Amino acid sequence: MRILVTYAVQGEFTELKFPGLIGEEEVHVGYLRTGVGKVKSTYYLTEVINQGQPDLVINVGTAGSIDRQVGDILVCRHFIDRDMEKLANLGVEYEIDSSALLAEKGYCMHWTGEGVCNTGDTFLTELSDVKGDVVDMEAFAQAFVCRAKKVPFIAVKYVTDIIGQNSVKHWEDKLADARKELGEFFEKIGGVVK
């Protein structure tokens, strides 16, 4: 089994530990730093999927929130593109749910802590009308690419900051905590298939 772990910036990199075998399959984990934003994320992820054909993509990283607590970890299978949501009246797609393909393959269904990830090309520093539990700048784009390529996708986000409360500074201060606690989360979940 080939698992591709994506993250936006080096400060978010977390080496994940999965059991050596899933069923009778050996597990190979690769990592991709996508850069910040939907365009870079889409481009680099598409290139790697075309070359490496992963069985599963896991986006791991940090996120802001309006109503969650710093330190919360959310497992996201539902994604909103806040930039395209503004064009919903024109019939533009702005929501993706990756649950069906994950369920079809039997991947990550036992991971708890469900949340909705709202993606946009801006780093939110002020409260606004945002749907979802956490905000980031890459997950919707990656979910879109994975759906097009028929690769199961899931995102696991650590809340580093509360939007409107010095978000940039809190994000920088919480990166070490995010890496540590995300690593512990993946050690505890017991793998991809259960």
Structure, explained:
InterPro entries: Nucleoside_phosphorylase_d, Nucleoside_phosphorylase_sf. The protein is an alpha/beta fold and 194 residues long. It has a single domain (2-189), classed as Nucleoside phosphorylase domain (Rossmann fold, 3-Layer(aba) Sandwich), CATH 3.40.50.1580. Helix content is 31%, strand content 29%. It has a five-stranded mixed barrel with strand order 5-9-8-6-10. The mean pLDDT is 89.
In short:
The chain is α/β, with parallel strands linked by helices and 194 residues long. It has helices at 38-52, 82-85, 99-105, 139-149, 167-189, and strands at residues 2-7, 21-22, 25-26, 28-33, 56-65, 73-81, 95-97, 114-119, 134-136, 153-162. Strand 2 and strand 3 (25-26) form a beta hairpin.
Uncertain segments are: none
Q: Which value, in Å, is the CA radius of gyration?
A: 16 Å
What is the SS-derived class? alpha/beta
What helical percentage do the residues reach?
A: 25-40%
Number of helices: 5
Q: End-to-end distance, in Å?
A: 14 Å
CATH topology: Rossmann fold
Q: Main beta sheet: strand number and arrangement?
A: 5 strands, mixed, barrel
Question: Roughly what fraction of the amino acids lie in strands?
Answer: 25-35%
Strand order of the largest sheet: 5-9-8-6-10
CATH C-level category: Alpha Beta
Element-by-element helix/strand order: EEEEHEEHEHEEHEH
Shape: globular
Q: In total, how many domains does the architecture comprise?
A: 1
What would you say the CATH architecture is?
A: 3-Layer(aba) Sandwich
Full CATH superfamily name: Nucleoside phosphorylase domain
Arithmetic mean of pLDDT: 89
Number of strands: 10
GO cellular component, one term: cytosol
Pfam family, one: PNP_UDP_1
Protein name: Adenosylhomocysteine nucleosidase
GO molecular function, one term: methylthioadenosine nucleosidase activity
